[in-house]
Every structure is written in C-alpha cells, then in structure tokens.
Design a protein that fits this description.
The complex is a heterodimer. By secondary structure, chain A is an alpha/beta fold. Chain A has two domains: 127 residues, Rossmann fold (3-Layer(aba) Sandwich), CATH 3.40.50; 171 residues, Rossmann fold. Chain A has eleven helices and 17 strands. In chain A, helix 3 packs parallel to helix 4 and helix 6 packs across helix 7. Chain A is globular. Chain B has 15 helices and two strands. Chain B has a two-stranded antiparallel sheet with strand order 1-2. Chain B is globular. The chains are: A alpha/beta, B mainly alpha. At the A-B interface, helix 1, strand 2, helix 3, helix 4 and helix 7 of A face helix 1, helix 2, helix 3 and helix 12 of B.
Amino acid sequence: MKKLVSILMVLVLVLSMAACGKKDDNKAGSSKVKAGFICLHDENSTYDKNFIDAAKQACEEMGIEAVFKTNVPEGQECLEAAEELVDDGCNFIFADSFGHEDYMIEAAKEFPEVQFCHATGTQAHTAGLDNFHNAFASIYEGRYLAGIVAGLKLNEMIENGEITADQAKVGYVGAFTYAEVVSGYTSFFLGIRSVCPSATMEVTFTGSWYDETAEKEGANKLIENGCVLISQHADSMGAPTACETAGVPNVSYNGSTDSACPNTFLVSSRIDWAPYFKYAMGCVESGSPIDTDWTGTLQSGSVVLSYYGNSVAEGTEEAVEAAKADLESGKIHVFDTATFTVDGKKLDSYQADVDSDAAYTPDHEVIVDGYFDESGKDFRSAPYFDLNIDGITLLDTAF
Amino acid sequence: MENKRREPLFHIVKRDTLPAWQSVGIRIIAILIALVVCAILTTALTGDNPFDVYYTMFQGAFGTERKTWFTLRDLSILLLISLALTPAFKMCFWNIGGEGQVLAGALAAAACMICLEDKIPDPVIVLLMIVTSIFAGAFWAFIPAICKAVWNTNETLSTLMMNYIATQLVAFFIIKWEVPKGSGKIGMICQDSHVGWLVDPMGNKFLLSIIVAAVITVIMYIYLKYTKHGYEIAVLGGSVQTARYAGIKVGKVIVRTVCLSGALCGVVGLLLVGSVNHTLTTTIVGGQGFTAVMVSWLAQFNPFVMVLTSLLIIFLDRGASAIATSFGVNESFSDMITGIILFFIIGCEFFIRYKVIFKKNSAEATVNTAKAEAKENSTEKIKDKATANEEKEDEE
C-alpha cells in the first residue's frame, strides 16, 4: 500500500511538473496545407535524409508547415503515426518506406478526406482508393548515367594498365532480391557496358535496407573476389567506407559520399523528391486530384546526378551529358532489348507482375517498341524489372 | 569491529524499513533532481525551454484521446509481459527470455493466419491461434526450465539464448512468407479478408489487450498471494532447501511456473499479431521482454504496482518520441532524457534500502551496522521458517 501511494504521488508530481510548461508557438504556415512525413529512419540514413531534405525544401518554398515522424517501423506504428498526424491537422501525409504501404492504405481508408502518398509502393493502382497514391522516379536512368561514369573509369584503368579488359569486374551491394534493387543494378550495369563492353558484375545481398556492418562486409567480400569498382543499393555508409579503405572507386546512391570518401567517390545518382512534393502538395492546395501513380524523370528534375568526384576519368561529363540528352529525347532506352540477353537469348516478350498479388502472376506485357518499359505510364511507378540478365552473377539470393 | 582499522570516508548501511513519508520523500527528491538535470542538459544542448519539453512529453502520452488510447494499449502489452515474467522471478528463476517467448507465440499465431487463411473457417483459425501461441510460448520457456530442473543449468544464459533462436526463426519465416518476394517483409496479414483478426470489443481496437491485461493482473495477484501454487513459488524463492524440507517438489514447481510464464508471453504474442500489429517482424516485441524485467522489479513483483511502473515507462517512451517530433531533435536526445529519469528513479531505490554514513559519524555508524546486521540475521531466520509472512509485513 505504501509503495502504491508513493509511486502515485511521484507520478502526480511528474505530471504536474510537466503540465506547468507553456505551449510552444506554432510556426504558422501561410498555406492551407499541412504536411506530415513518415520516415523509416532519421537523417543518419542516406535514404531518409534524401526525403527529409527534399520535404523541407518543398515546404519552405511553398510556405507549408511540415511535421516529421522519424524512426517509424514498417508496422502498426506507421498507421498510428499517420493517425497522429491527422489529429495534428495534417491533410497531406507521405511515407517513405516500401513496408509502410499496407498501413498507409489502412490510414487512407480511415481518413478519406486526407491525401496519402507513398514512395516506392505498388498497390495504389489496384487499391481503388481516391486518396492513396504511389510515386517513384525513373531512377534507372540515373543509375544508367552513373554506370557510364563507372564504365569510363574502368576504361581508364584498362588504358593505364591497372587491369586487363577481362578484369573489369564491378561489385554491387544490394539489400534484397526485390525488383527495385534488380532494376537498379541492371540499369547501372547496362550503363557501364554501353562504354566498357567487357565489364561483368557480381551482386551480393545483405537482407536489410540499413545494416552498416553487413554492407561493409559485403563490399569487402566483393573486393576480395576481384571487383575493381563498387556500387550499392542499401542505405548506410558501410560500402563507401570499405571502398575508401581499400582504395576502390565507388558509385553511391541517394547522396554524395564525397566527404567520407574523398579519394574513391566517383558520382552518386539520386531521386530528388522535391518536384513530387511540390506537385502533390500543390494538388492538395488547389483541390485537384493527385496522380495515382507518378513517375519522376530526368526532365522533371526528379532524377539527378551529384557533382563528380576528383578521380573520374577524363571526358566523363561530356559523355554523361550526351547520354542524358539521348535518354530525354527517347533516342536511347536503358532497357533496350538489343543491349542485353537473358539465358543467351534476346527478349522479345515479357509478362511482368505489375498488379502485385501473392502468387506473382505475370499480368502485363512490358516489352514495348523493342525495350523493357520500366515504370511505364500505363503500368505503375515502382520498378518491376526482375530479370536476371547475362553478365551479372548473383552471389547469394537468400534475401 | 577492529577499532584500529582506518575508517573509510563513508559507510553504506542497510536501513530499517523507512516510514512512508520518508520513502516517498526520497523518491520525490530523486524525480526533482532528475528533472533539474534534464532541464540543464536540454538548455545546454538544444537551447529549448525545458518546461516546454516536459509539457510536450505529457502531450505525447495524453495529448489527445487517441494518444491516451495508444498509451493505455502500450501499457497493457508491457504490463502483460511483466506479469508473465513475475512468477518466475518470484521463484528466483531469472527468466530474461520474455522476448523470445513472445516471439514464439507471435510466430505461431501468424503461422495459423498465413497458412490456413482460406482453408478453414475463421473461428476455428482464431481458436487454433489461441491454442498454438500459448503452447509455443510455454514450449519456449519449457526448454530452459527442464534444463534447470534436471541439470541445474544457468537459466539466465539459456533463456537469453532462446531469444536469439526465436528471433532467427522469425527472420527465417519472414523470408519464407515475404510479400512481395525479395522485399524482406510480410506486410499486413489477411488485410482484405481479416481472417484471424481478433475481435475489437465495442468496436475499439485498443480495448482487447487492455481488458486481457486487467483480468490477468487481478488473476496474477490472487494466484501469487492466495493459492497453493503461489505459496510454493514464494517458499522456493526464499530458499530451495526450505522448499525441499517442506516437501515441495522443486523440479515440478520450476517447470510448472516457468511454463506458465512462457504461456502468458505466448498470449502477448497472440495479441501483438492478432490484435495490435497484424503482421510479424523480428522487432515486433521491441525489447519489451527486457523492459518488463525492470517493470517487474521496480514494482517488487506486486501486480498492481506494476500497472504504475509500466505506466511510467510507457509515459516516458511516448513522451520521448513526442519530444523528437516537436523539437526536431534526434531521437537519441529524448532517449537520453528518459534514461536520466529512469536512472534517478531506480537509483533512489538504493537510498531507500541503504543509507550512507560519513566519517565523522563513524561511531554511530558502527552501532548502526551492528544493529542492521543483527536485524538481517534475524530476518533471514524468519525467512527460512516461513517466507509467506514477508508479504504480510509489507502490507502493514
């Protein structure tokens, strides 16, 4: 009984102390939009930082008040974060991680008057909800351009006699064997091979979007296997740091790693989410509908390359600009079926699982006009390229 | 005591039971110091007004009706795990495998939902979920229990190891059941069919775990205090020799109690998958299996006091994340605040049980030490005779 009373009193005290404080002044936004952002990690993850920076920039430009919920796991917590944001007055809510999608859909069902947008998701076009939307960007184009930077570096190494043409093996640290990752490393590889035809690639998977140790070990394993250039699709600094230590050139993703890797950083491709945020929040402001699936492109400014590192090969910038212009004009396509084979054969037809279902039923013909139409406007924004092309070796596919 | 020995700067002496106002006083002082330290740290590191920070903490836990429900729901889950661990602790069986036992229960429940979704009727699935998750939790506890009972293995190590096995087992099945393939997550289970989703009493999705926690709190109190099993646990916790002397089958009581502990953890797993999350992840328990150890100890194994200690932890936790959101500071900062507050609250328990005597009072101290030692000896004797009396003393 004594304990009960004492703990009660302690609690009362804590609560009364807490209640003494005065309310903090809200930074009044001039807009009728209030935006809520749900992030899987915080700014320590390059992936989330990329979203947070873009969101801050877009909200500042538009005079919109933003609330951030960071370190929200891919579970019920996401739905709860969305509910709290709605309670807080947000009428535009965005979540940045693939696993948030199911919970965002639940939230969209619960609050039909609030617009929910989700990056990298696959279900908006089949969910039948007016207020739930997916967004992504044709980042495969950015990876392709980064691949050109890498390929030119390989050529330079071959010319300098550091490696022979056969030794031009590239390593790639991926998170999961999932279409988004497959599409990413394949486009990077095709970019490399467009300038360095003898290149091959090895891919290893960590089974996590953010695992610094595993990514570092993965990169080290690839380097030991004889890979002379490394890129990655996982969100920590693990792989870039390993590269800097070993002196192996590195192409990063979602942000420059120049400061941590001054000697080995080549270039980084990333999605700039600010154009999407401006577009979607603009729609909420004007009351017009948001696209169910929105794909950012090079033209919309959504797919960007960072500045180049010190060690890029000569003539890189010109080659990249030329390829970029060709991609924008439609003269070349990243997944041109003339540039790759699957099991030794050219691809004439492929049914992809665009409408996600548990059985992965292929449901759409995606080879259009001689190229694989990734993130096509008739399909969905999230990648669905999941083919294993020749020249790429997967070291482990457990994940 | 040798008088010639050089006196140390201070002595630590066991106290007599403190009068209520003094123990409350010590706790209040501890909280005040904690709040002051946090305030200094907040101003120094972030430049924010500490009172705003405390206000935000309160708002984070009870600011809106929904937040209050979240707090109560989280409280009920943490309380349930703490209640589950308590009988084992009271018996001096250090079950730190709550995490793994809950995961085992969660895995069983999720398996029923995923594998049987469109094969058998929903009520049968729910029934199977209840049975299998309770069994799975109990089984996960049974292994360390039987090892302890038969070979007297160290249960702290074995329960801890079982946690890792459970986590890896769940990780394995997540890859097996992942949707879509290669994404490393299961997502909401039966999102469209709602098969295996437990009922929401009165349409409130938070109520089920709260009701279960309330019922089990009362039952656990009665079980520990008024039943033969409860008495056996208390005796065994006091001294294994005494228990043997009194004719208690030690091995049987250990296995029975630890299985009960695990079964209750299994129930939590069931609630997490069937009612709260509707998914399965390796982090679904979120370390609460360990936090529950602190909750149970802070409450000195009294189920009703555990309601308050788990409220304290959940309040700090939700408050901390509110600070991170409103002040735009890194979550590590708010965790630091919670850590400091907890440190002082737990630390003050030391000053309630012991007192520090400085050098100049050494003569008095020696007397006190002698007194305390005498008292300790006598209490131990009493303990040996009947441990159950201890609780009555407590009540007075």
